[in-house]
Each structure stands twice: as structure tokens, then as C-alpha cells.
Amino acid sequence: MKYYIIAGEASGDLHGGNLIKALHATDPHAQIRCWGGDHMEAAGATVVKHFRDLAFMGFVEVLTHLRTIFSNIAFCKQDIADFQPDVVVFIDYPGFNMRIAAWARQHGYKTAYYISPQVWAWKESRVAALKRDVDKMIVILPFEQPYFAGKQWEVAYVGHPLMEVVKYHRDNVAVVPLSDRPIIALLPGSRAQEIRLKLPIMLQAVRHFPEYAFVVAQAPAQPDSLYLDIIGKAPVQLVRNQTYNLLSQAKAALVTSGTATLETALFGVPEVVCYKGNKISYLLARQLVKVKYISLVNLIMDKPVVRELIQDDLNEKNIVEALSQLLAESPTLQLLRQDYTDLAKLLGTSRASAAAAKIVWELARA
After folding, report:
1. 94: closest CA among 113, 70, 75, 120?
2. Predicted local distance difference test score (pLDDT) of residue 76
3. Which of 190, 186, 170, 343 is nearest to 262 (CA)?
4. For residue 100, what are the CA distances in angstroms to 72, 77, 289?
5. E strand map for the chain
6. Is the CB of residue 221 less than 8 Å from the CB of residue 190?
7. Rounded to an integer, what distance in angstroms lies between the CA atom of residue 340 and that of residue 258?
8. What local confidence, expressed as pLDDT, does residue 70 receive?
9. Which of 37, 222, 271, 319 is the most exposed place for a label (fewest CB within 10 A)?
10. Domains of the chain with bracketed CATH
11. Distance CA 305, CA 314 (A)
12. pLDDT tens digits, residue range 203-261?
């Protein structure tokens, strides 16, 4: 079978890579063409466009890159038409993927969506378009299946793919020590614009915790120069392609909102969730987004398990205060550990990638 898979961000590349491995195990003759990154390429797919050229975050940022976005959409449609896949698979990235899904439906391609757009958070009107254009929706968060059932749409819940990824790493990969001091991890995101906004603020904590080694997890798609220009002479260490090794030994972490918040929690690392965006984009988002939390940890647990520092609250004083609570044997830390245990139980132990691959394969051959 021929599969065309589209992921536009680092997390989509990670999950797409594991989906591709599972597809090859399910369908040994699979031909896979994709938009993604290093994980998807390493899994055996032909990468047409790398996500580093696709990830635009925020309303203002998208507007300033409209010409590039429309050019990419046109290219993608033509590439699908040339490849003639048995199924087109979309991984999150809704602004782009939903446009391609509508076109694919009109042109008779079978479609599957793995990792639903967060329509439960904002743009609920998209549900109608998804039901129209997607043959099979595959969801990974426990509350999504009942949410879509309430919209009269039966979707497939496979569990969260991070469970298997983190478990494999913890069971099979040896920890490589990064410092002889206790470590605080800094995960400033994968996009250049968010790194430029958040890393300088995260670095303000360094001088307050001289007994700790601060280690920055570099995004694979970003150059060293981006980080070095921000860090300057600050006494911090950079690591690339070692995020899980870093989390395996960190005592606490400052983490950009997104998939990394859940990864950090599954490694049991106390964290402070950091978010800061373009002011106009943020103000617009506040009017449109209807969820109580920005981190996956809090959304899944439906309570404030980890502290979120958002926009103006992301400052030196608040970061230092939040980190101090997490680095001491406080009631806050004890409660956090229990909540992390409950989170893992809630997400279950299912092999999400294999389950999703089976659904996609069955759709392709139907």
C-alpha cells in the first residue's frame, strides 16, 4: 500500500516516526511519502518537506507567512496527485492539514487523522469539516472519544503514543551523565520564534540556583547559533538529541507548553510550564480558546497539577518561586508525584502506534 503522511511540527514528527515503524511492521511492502522530519525519515519514509520550514505559531506569524503557506499547500496537493496514495494520513497541524483533507476528499482519496486537532479547545466549528473530510479519526487523549461521541461521531481511541516512547527509553536506554551537579532542564520549544521569546526569560533563573547545572535541550531542527546568541556567557550547557537522557536525570524543568509538558511528567520530573507569545496573538487567543489550562498535563487531569506561567506571569520572580517549591521536599512536590502517578494510570499502557497503524492499513486496503 502507498501512504502519504503529513506532520508539521516536532511532536508530529516523533509520533509520525513511530506510526511509520508500525506501518512497516503491519505492511512490509508499504511505500511512504511524508511531510515531517528526522524521526519519520529514520523510520523509512521519504521526506518531501521538513517541518522546520512549516511551523508558524500565532495569528500574526501566520499572516506574515501566507505566501509561503499557500505555496506549500499547492505543492502538497500536486505531490499527492503525483504519488497517488491509497490513504492520506494527517497528524495534528490543523491549519494546513484540514485544507488538504478537504481537497483530498473532493479528489476521492481515503483520509485518516491521527492526533485530532484540539477542537475541544477552540474552533469547535471545525468538527463539521472534519466529519465531512475524514474517513477515520484516531484520537490519543482519554476525554476526546466521549467529546466526539457527543458530536455524533464515532472515533477510535488508541491511547497516548508517548506512553510507549517513554517506557521504551526508560527500560532500554542507559542514562549518560551530563553533570556532576544536580540538573535543572530547560526545554524552550522547537520553533525559533518561541525559543527567542522564552529562553532568555528561563535563563534569568540561573543566577538564583548556583548549586545546579542548567542544561538546555536543543531542538534538532535549530542551529547552534540560535542558542549561542541568546545564551551569551551564561553558565549553561547545550545538548542536542538528548532530551530524554536529560529528563532521565533532571531534578526539575522549565518547559514550553506543548507535548514536552507531558513528556516531562511521564519521566517524573517536577516542572514549571512556560508560555509567552506575540502580544496580539495572545490577546486574540484569549478571546477564542475556551480551555482552563495550556499544558497537556493539566488538561488531561482536569486540574492544576503543574504551575503554568503565562505571558506576563512568565518572569524571573515567578520562575524562581516556582522552582524553589519544586526543588524542596515540600507538600507541593509530594502532591505532584502522586498526580504524575495518576496521570500515567489514566493514559494506560496501550501500544498506540501499532493500534493506529492497523486502523490506517485497514482503511488503505478497504
Report:
1. 113
2. 96
3. 343
4. 11, 7, 24
5. 2-7, 31-36, 46-50, 87-91, 111-114, 136-139, 156-157, 183-187, 213-218, 236-240, 250-256, 271-275, 307-310
6. yes
7. 17
8. 83
9. 222
10. 2-159+350-365 (3.40.50.2000), 167-347 (3.40.50.2000)
11. 17
12. 999 999 999 999 999 998 799 999 999 999 999 999 999 999 999 999 999 999 888 99
H or E element in which residue 299 lies: helix 296-301
Partners of 183 in the beta sheet?
213, 250
Grid coordinates belonging to 78: 500536486
Q: Phi then psi for 340, rounded to 5 degrees?
A: -65, -40
The CA distance from 120 to 363, in Å, is 25
For residue 200, give the C-alpha cell.
532568555
Phi, psi (deg, nearest 5) at residue 228: -65, -35
d(CA 221, CA 246): 18
Residues in the chain: 366
In order of 161, 173, 265, 299, 323, the CA distances from 212 in angstroms are 32, 24, 20, 30, 12
- Give yes or no for a contact between 344 and 162, defined as CB atoms under 8 angstroms apart: no
Phi and psi torsions of 94, nearest 5°: -70, -35
Grid coordinates representing 245 are 537522557
Q: What is the pLDDT of residue 263?
A: 95
The widest CA-to-CA distance across the chain, in whole angstroms, is 61
**What is the Cα–Cα distance from 5 to 363, expressed in whole angstroms?**
14
CA atoms within 13 A on the CB side of 319: 27
Query: What's residue 221's pLDDT?
Result: 79
Q: Which residues of the chain have pLDDT under 50?
A: 57-60
What is the strand order of the sheet 271-275 is part of? 236-240, 213-218, 183-187, 250-256, 271-275, 307-310
DSSP state of 252: E
